[in-house]
Amino acid sequence: MSSATVESWGPNAGNHAAKAFYYARTPLLLVDISGVITDLNAACRELLGIDVAGCRNQHYTYLVDRLRAKIDGELLPPNGIANSYFKGLTGKTTSKTPPILETADLNISVVECCYRSDRFGPTRLRVTELPSIDTASGMCAGSLLSLEPHDIADPTALQTAIDRRLSHEVLWEVYAASYDRILPEMPFYQEVVKRHCTAMEPAPIRTVLDVGAGTGVPTLRLLDLGKRVTAVDINRAMLQKLYSKLDARQAERLAVIEDTAESLPHLPDASFDGVSVLLAFFDMADPLSALRETQRLLKPGGILIVTEPRACFNVDELMTAAEASLRAKGLLERLSADWKRIQSVAPFIRDTIRDIQARTTATPLVQHWNAEAIFEIMHQDGFSNLTFRESHLGNCATIMGQKRNSYPSKTG
User: Fold this and answer.
1) Which of 153, 182, 198 is the last residue of a domain?
2) Is the pTM of this model over 0.90?
3) Element (H, E) at 129
């Protein structure tokens, strides 16, 4: 888990080189000289899926251990930088000082292994490791690893999934640029943010998990209430917006996890007094698993508050109301560029919600995924003091309840 400092993103966060890494169609990992995975790109997350959850800012042995049962062969080149300077799989470096590489060490190291992907089937990976050199000092700063898939049963499926993921990331990057200027002007958004923060306000709630934190509107308010907050979001552009708004006092009480909330294995059970999920589940591949994770991470007696689209969700109604609100406030002309960006994302949101609501939840408790289903699941799981309140002009609903003394398994 990274602390909330700009350095967590690296000194060149947001520049073209960083984006080129993140949006590359080849799965890539960056490992620093201490053996910590400092970054992984969107294609790597798509290839490895839930198996790579929680690996960012962990020692690379964490990933090796998670993949051990699914890998035949070596994940890292045995003669590469990682195994040479990180003492194999001990998790310790040979020295705190980055090494100066000899000319003979400046080689590309390659190894192949077979990875059994849950989504794409058996895949032969060609793992290539290049030393990363600090040009100012000439010392080794770690390594770059590429995981190129070969001999995959359906290569088109993987590339289609990666392309879809990259398009998704770009779309939310566009959306993030206008999110903070448009949504805070919406009365229905202000209402639901206040509702979530009020739920987390009581003094016994000291630690809060904010799932789908986005640009951090609720996160910052929770920090101002004196809470210690862990913000989780998988979209880099949204989190960069969050970082840009932090002051030093807030940053001291914030931890940020750039990852899917469907699996947070590095966080222990019963870690948080409260969990807030504001319009996040609908954009996940497996929202039921994410809901189970929030239950696992919530302390007994803790409060879970979730706002999600209802079965009757109508994005056109919301967009009409939003435009009318901007016009009534005299903001429509000044924010016209931002409003056009929001409008461009609206069809995607509509289609995403339709898709997730059409899927079965893989649980006998409910048939489809929506706010009504979440209420039923929480009821079946024994949450007490359950409430169901409409939001977003009746298109969404907020469900809030108190956790019992145990939680159900992920299987539902």
Assistant:
1) 153
2) no
3) strand 121-134
